[in-house]
């Protein structure tokens, strides 16, 4: 069967890209080895963090130019999120009533000031609050919090709802979604891509396409290898926790500029706590395996202690569940979005804060594919920045 585009991976990146390509009139099939939304896209914290994260601001010198572009793209993502429930015609438990990035030490405050300068220069709405202003806005925070950067657009969305909503819309627009189909081979033949996949039944199927989109998340590198490409996306195991329900008292997305923390309370009253604490990836014979990472109890305790230090009101809450997921990280922490020049018709959408930016990356990538140019440049994220890794790949 021939399609204009084959998209591999049924997470947010894949489902949203398939949806926008179908909307643009392309014939599209999406191939997913398991079920839709069972990877990082369905396991994440659901934070819409539009402020530069802890992991990025600590490398602000090395990433100076890229961060300017990143912040400029944030405004595009904010506008996109504001209209997303109408666009997908689905309620997504979306809340965008503001986020606070906290500082406790002089060093933290210095980082916040630096971050505010980068963000404000690109027009992102952020306000630096001193201790009293922070307490007035968020009385549930500890007096140890000495300053905070407030962004009125931050918030959260239910990760169990977003990707399925894209998959449903993609189907309505005529895309074919094939689950339980593990792609095992991708080959360039003439001016087409030839893709083989093993169905759950054991049957092997073959498709051809003009365009191939690698949206395999943390496994984008494995998929790249099938096309004789090095795509540097490395799997990382992450931890999340959720407490029992309580009356609503945390009204913001809470992050910390110097410590790993993300915390929010959803409308049902549960408090979600995460922020980049690690979980152990399964291994066999020195290879990472795609299964669920294991909870690391030391990381779990440290994550909860960090949350408790800034929001003492959570002390009496029982943790209902901790879970893990696997995301993909690149050597420079920026996503890998765009065309691979040495492999005509091959596109990648992987890495980065792929929940917050996933819908926007997918829309821009589909513009690049269908019109040759995206309405907001994706140049800093081009996979070609790692072209040197493929110089000898034949
Ligand atoms: C615990 C955790 C918390 C996070 N919190 C946040 C957050 O708060 N905010 C934020 O912005 N980001 C967050 N992230 C990151 C975000 O979830 C990811 O960047 C994003 O979901 C990646 O989407 P994806 O579609 O690229 O990958 P995935 O959702 O992992 O999808 C990739 C899919 O590809 C499929 N696949 C792989 N290989 C093959 C193959 N050979 N054949 C067929 N299918 C294949 C997989 O089965 C999988 O379904 C978090 C991640 C984790 C793990």
Radius of gyration: 21 Å
Give the beta-strand count. Answer: 20
What count of helical segments does DSSP give?
Answer: 11
Low-confidence stretches: none
* CATH topology-level name of the largest domain: FAD/NAD(P)-binding domain
Describe this structure in words.
The chain has 394 residues and is α+β, with helices and mostly antiparallel strands. It has two domains: 174 residues, FAD/NAD(P)-binding domain (3-Layer(bba) Sandwich), CATH 3.50.50; 157 residues, D-Amino Acid Oxidase, subunit A, domain 2 (D-Amino Acid Oxidase, Chain A, domain 2, 2-Layer Sandwich). It is 29% helix and 28% strand. It has eleven helices and 20 strands. Strands 1, 2, 8, 9, 10, 11, 19 and 20 form an eight-stranded mixed sheet that branches. Helix 1 links the parallel strand 1 and strand 2. Helix 1 packs parallel to helix 8 and helix 1 crosses helix 11. The radius of gyration is 21 Å and the shape is globular. The chain starts with a strand and ends in a 23-residue tail after the last helix. The protein binds flavin-adenine dinucleotide (FAD). The site of flavin-adenine dinucleotide has 40 residues, from helix 1, helix 2, strand 9, strand 12 and strand 18.
């Amino acid at each position: 069967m021939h399609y204009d585009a084959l998209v591999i991976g049924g997470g947010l990146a894949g489902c949203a890209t398939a949806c926008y390509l179908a909307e643009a009139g392309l014939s599209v099939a999406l191939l997913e080895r398991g079920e839709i939304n069972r990877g990082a896209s369905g396991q994440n914290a659901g934070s819409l963090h539009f402020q530069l994260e802890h992991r990025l601001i600590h490398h602000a010198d090395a990433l100076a130019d890229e961060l300017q572009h990143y912040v400029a793209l944030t405004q595009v993502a904010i506008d996109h999120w504001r209209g997303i429930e109408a666009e997908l015609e689905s309620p997504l438990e979306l809340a965008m009533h503001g986020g606070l990035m906290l500082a406790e030490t002089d060093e933290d405050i210095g980082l916040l000031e630096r971050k505010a300068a980068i963000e404000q220069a690109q027009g992102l709405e952020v306000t630096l609050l001193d201790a009293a202003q922070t307490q007035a806005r968020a009385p549930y925070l500890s007096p140890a919090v000495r300053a905070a950067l407030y962004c009125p657009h931050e918030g959260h969305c239910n990760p169990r709802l977003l990707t399925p909503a894209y998959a449903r819309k993609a189907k309505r627009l005529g895309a074919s979604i094939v689950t339980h189909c593990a792609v095992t081979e991708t080959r360039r033949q003439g001016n087409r891509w030839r893709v083989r996949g093993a169905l759950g039944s054991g049957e092997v199927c073959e498709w051809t396409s003009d365009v191939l989109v690698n949206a395999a998340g943390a496994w984008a590198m494995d998929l790249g290898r099938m096309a004789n490409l090095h795509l540097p996306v490395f799997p990382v195991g992450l931890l999340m926790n959720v407490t029992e329900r309580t009356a609503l008292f945390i009204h913001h997305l809470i992050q910390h500029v110097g410590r790993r923390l993300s915390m929010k309370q959803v409308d049902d009253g549960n408090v979600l706590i995460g922020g980049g604490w690690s979980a152990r990836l399964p291994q066999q014979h020195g290879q990472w395996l795609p299964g669920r990472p294991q909870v690391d109890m030391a990381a779990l305790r440290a994550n909860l202690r960090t949350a408790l230090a800034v929001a003492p009101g959570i002390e009496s809450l029982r943790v209902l569940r901790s879970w893990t997921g696997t995301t993909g990280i690149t050597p420079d922490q920026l996503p890998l979005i765009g065309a691979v020049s040495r492999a005509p018709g091959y596109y990648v959408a992987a890495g980065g804060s792929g929940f917050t930016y996933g819908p926007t990356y997918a829309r821009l990538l589909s513009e690049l594919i269908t019109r040759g140019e995206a309405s907001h440049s994706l140049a800093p994220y081009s996979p070609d920045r790692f072209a040197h890794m493929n110089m000898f790949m034949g």
